[in-house]
Amino acid sequence: MTVSTPPTGAGPLARREARLAWGLLAPTLLAVSLVVILPLLAVFWISFKPVGLADLRPPAPVVREDLRGKPQTAGDEATIRYRLRNSSQDKVISGVVLTDTWPEGLAPVALDPRCTLNGEALRCDLGDWEGGFRDEIRLDVTVGQAFLDAGGDVDDTEAAIAGNAENILTNASFTLENFTRIFDGAQFWSVFGVTIFYTVFGTVGALVMGLFAAMLLNRSFRGQGFLRGLYLFPYVAPVIAVAFSWILLFDPFSGSANALLLQMGVTQQSINFFGERPLALIMVTLFEIWRYFPLSFLFILARMQSIDTDMYEAADMDGASPFQKFWYLSMPQLLGILSVLFLLRFIWTFNKFDDIFLLTGGNAGTRTLTVNVYEQAFAVSNIGAGAAVAVVIFSCLLVFSFFFFKFMSKEEGL
Amino acid sequence: MSLMRNGYVTGAVLGALWCFVIAVTVAVCLSFATGAAFRPSIGWSVLWGAGLGVAALRGWRVLLGPMVAVCVAGLVGFGPLVVGDAPMLAEVLGHAAVAGFAALGLSMILEEAEPAALTRHVYEEAVIRFLTGFGYIFFTAIVVIPFYVMVMTSLKNQAELLQNPLDFSLDLSKGAGLLRSYFELFSQFNFGSYLWTSFFVSVLTVFITLAFAIPGAYAVARLRFKGRAAFSRSILLIYMVPMIVLALPIYIGFSMTGLRNTILGIVMIYPVTTIPVALYMLQGYFRGLPSEVEEAGLMDGLSRLAVIWKITLPLSLPALASVSLYVFMIAWNEFLLAFMLLDDPSKFTLTRGISSLNSSEVPRQHLMAGSVIATVPIMALFLGLERFMTKGLTAGSVKG
């Protein structure tokens, strides 16, 4: 009697299914790794390199070719001139080689010792160039009829030039300077503090406002759909449009908000909302709350509408007051969605760049970590330091997402 | 606490608060509409409001007298609303509105309250009604005001705005002249081309995103393979990577390969930012579809791909619509990448075009007109398809 054992490993069907799955996922995997994973690795790489904005264009030899003298008839003499230059002012280019194909009908009178002519192909070995190197090569030639017939243009075939320059992005020199620079001094901690303030208050504010708005709309009345649509406007409109209208609204000279406050006697002189130190940060946070309360409101409303009404009827029978119903019945039901929203919004607010960049440009004490990436990389032209800040952001993100997944798994079995 | 729950105290306090809210609202509305000086008076608001609140306890008929009194007091100069020099009509309208809305609101807020000790239930109902009324006014105001300023500024000119920043009244006799900044944007600032580029890029992004996300989402939702759980998590993780972190190497890479400053580069990069979220939204929906229908198709001899094409996709059209809308919105509103990668004005998207208007040489109304041009299409699309949008937004990230 044979002992029957259950099959082990994956059967052919299961294997086929897995193959199909990977096939369907392949395009996404490819695209995502190309645009997300690769850049992330690049950020890590760059953060350890002393790279400035100017280094993005690696040093290269440059050549311009022209014909001097105006040859009219066959036998006239002319000069072909190559003007050479190193595009970089301080980097060395080694082993520069110039190659060119001459048009027919040119005969060399005297060749530069660096150059050899083989038929129509010219090759010049130009050696190593210092930064800021400039030179000229003049080659005297006599022109033949064939050259004049062809139009007499040496530019028809472009001269090619190549050399080896050390590219700072790919060489093996590393430095910790970027990290010491960004962690140096009090600036980092003030940036970090601003980020935390913005993130915590922006997130909590948006949640509280969202909860309030959801409670307003969690009843059916005429115009409920309209109001719901209206309250989503801040989230749906392009950030650039609403950011500029906020700037205009709160302008210290011609802003309506200031005019209104002056007229109502709340303040005696106009307030520079986006230009003063603690106020600018508060305004930016308020903008964040204003722009993202619709998102929390949408999620909370969806959850509210799925709560069973039986429970409330039972509570009514027991004589519970409205606040009691809210606190003891609704809140526990909403706690799950609120905490998930908190984590999600916390991460997204932490990552937010556009809003602050458009409102204040990171001035007046509103520079968060993300704005700092831009400032370091483009305003100070130090790409390496920008990448180092980006690495710091990414590490924070990893910590947050650890909590997120730990919590989410419990919350919805993801 | 028990003192608060006396009808008179509740009525007076809520009345004072409500009257002040209404006075502020009316003052702000009229200021924005006429540009004249309207302001609420805290003292008179509290006094009159408390009176109205107490009167409201005795039913709406008793309220009519005090309501007229508030209106008349306002005209004489002792009302909740203080008016500087304003047109007569606006002034009368303002006082009437304050008195009317204050009385109407209070009669609703204090509907069940009586001039005696209140039960906890009645008291809390009244407070909640007050908060509800306040909430509607508050949220509507904060949402509407920035958009109102945006639209009205685009219809005026710089000199008028500097003179009185509150005066948004329009000179209708100008007719089409009101739309001057729009004409100038389209004729001199090339906004027609920006609009087209934005539309083109967004639509292309939607199609590319769907082409990548549909098969991926199906695989994650339905097929069993090793690493499925890890995969669906890493999608979310990628969704959380900040764009600015990626923008830096993308900028470097594009600079080196010559893709910077090309529409091709933009079209390549936008879908990748939207694929993770689209994939996540779609797989949630696919999971909710009954798998029996698909299995029936498989039994009848369709291949998996045919099942997706003939059964799953037609069933998930609503989800596809909302995902497309959401992706379109992201691509249309995208600013950071367009700002970093595009320098050539002939290739600008709309958001990039608007940011180029933000200089001291371009008048403010042009900036706002540009903002309106960018906002109107997405709003129209959104209001028209609001049902899909709300569903799509919620369906994606969090269940239940």
TrEMBL record, chain A:
<keyword id="KW-0812">Transmembrane</keyword>
<feature type="transmembrane region" description="Helical">
    <location>
        <begin position="279"/>
        <end position="302"/>
    </location>
</feature>
<dbReference type="InterPro" id="IPR051393">
    <property type="entry name" value="ABC_transporter_permease"/>
</dbReference>
<keyword id="KW-0813">Transport</keyword>
<feature type="transmembrane region" description="Helical">
    <location>
        <begin position="20"/>
        <end position="48"/>
    </location>
</feature>
<keyword id="KW-1133">Transmembrane helix</keyword>
<comment type="similarity">
    <text>Belongs to the binding-protein-dependent transport system permease family.</text>
</comment>
<dbReference type="InterPro" id="IPR035906">
    <property type="entry name" value="MetI-like_sf"/>
</dbReference>
<feature type="transmembrane region" description="Helical">
    <location>
        <begin position="229"/>
        <end position="249"/>
    </location>
</feature>
<dbReference type="Pfam" id="PF00528">
    <property type="entry name" value="BPD_transp_1"/>
</dbReference>
<dbReference type="GO" id="GO:0005886">
    <property type="term" value="C:plasma membrane"/>
</dbReference>
<keyword id="KW-1003">Cell membrane</keyword>
<keyword id="KW-0472">Membrane</keyword>
<protein>
    <submittedName>
        <fullName>Inner membrane ABC transporter permease protein YcjO</fullName>
    </submittedName>
</protein>
<feature type="transmembrane region" description="Helical">
    <location>
        <begin position="326"/>
        <end position="348"/>
    </location>
</feature>
<dbReference type="GO" id="GO:0055085">
    <property type="term" value="P:transmembrane transport"/>
</dbReference>
<feature type="transmembrane region" description="Helical">
    <location>
        <begin position="383"/>
        <end position="405"/>
    </location>
</feature>
<feature type="domain" description="ABC transmembrane type-1">
    <location>
        <begin position="192"/>
        <end position="404"/>
    </location>
</feature>
<dbReference type="InterPro" id="IPR000515">
    <property type="entry name" value="MetI-like"/>
</dbReference>
<feature type="transmembrane region" description="Helical">
    <location>
        <begin position="188"/>
        <end position="217"/>
    </location>
</feature>
TrEMBL record, chain B:
<keyword id="KW-1003">Cell membrane</keyword>
<feature type="transmembrane region" description="Helical">
    <location>
        <begin position="194"/>
        <end position="214"/>
    </location>
</feature>
<dbReference type="InterPro" id="IPR000515">
    <property type="entry name" value="MetI-like"/>
</dbReference>
<keyword id="KW-1133">Transmembrane helix</keyword>
<keyword id="KW-0813">Transport</keyword>
<feature type="transmembrane region" description="Helical">
    <location>
        <begin position="42"/>
        <end position="60"/>
    </location>
</feature>
<feature type="transmembrane region" description="Helical">
    <location>
        <begin position="235"/>
        <end position="256"/>
    </location>
</feature>
<feature type="transmembrane region" description="Helical">
    <location>
        <begin position="12"/>
        <end position="36"/>
    </location>
</feature>
<feature type="transmembrane region" description="Helical">
    <location>
        <begin position="262"/>
        <end position="286"/>
    </location>
</feature>
<feature type="transmembrane region" description="Helical">
    <location>
        <begin position="307"/>
        <end position="332"/>
    </location>
</feature>
<dbReference type="InterPro" id="IPR035906">
    <property type="entry name" value="MetI-like_sf"/>
</dbReference>
<dbReference type="GO" id="GO:0005886">
    <property type="term" value="C:plasma membrane"/>
</dbReference>
<feature type="transmembrane region" description="Helical">
    <location>
        <begin position="92"/>
        <end position="110"/>
    </location>
</feature>
<dbReference type="Pfam" id="PF00528">
    <property type="entry name" value="BPD_transp_1"/>
</dbReference>
<keyword id="KW-0472">Membrane</keyword>
<feature type="transmembrane region" description="Helical">
    <location>
        <begin position="130"/>
        <end position="151"/>
    </location>
</feature>
<keyword id="KW-0812">Transmembrane</keyword>
<feature type="transmembrane region" description="Helical">
    <location>
        <begin position="367"/>
        <end position="385"/>
    </location>
</feature>
<protein>
    <submittedName>
        <fullName>Inner membrane ABC transporter permease protein YcjP</fullName>
    </submittedName>
</protein>
<dbReference type="InterPro" id="IPR050901">
    <property type="entry name" value="BP-dep_ABC_trans_perm"/>
</dbReference>
<dbReference type="GO" id="GO:0055085">
    <property type="term" value="P:transmembrane transport"/>
</dbReference>
<feature type="domain" description="ABC transmembrane type-1">
    <location>
        <begin position="195"/>
        <end position="385"/>
    </location>
</feature>
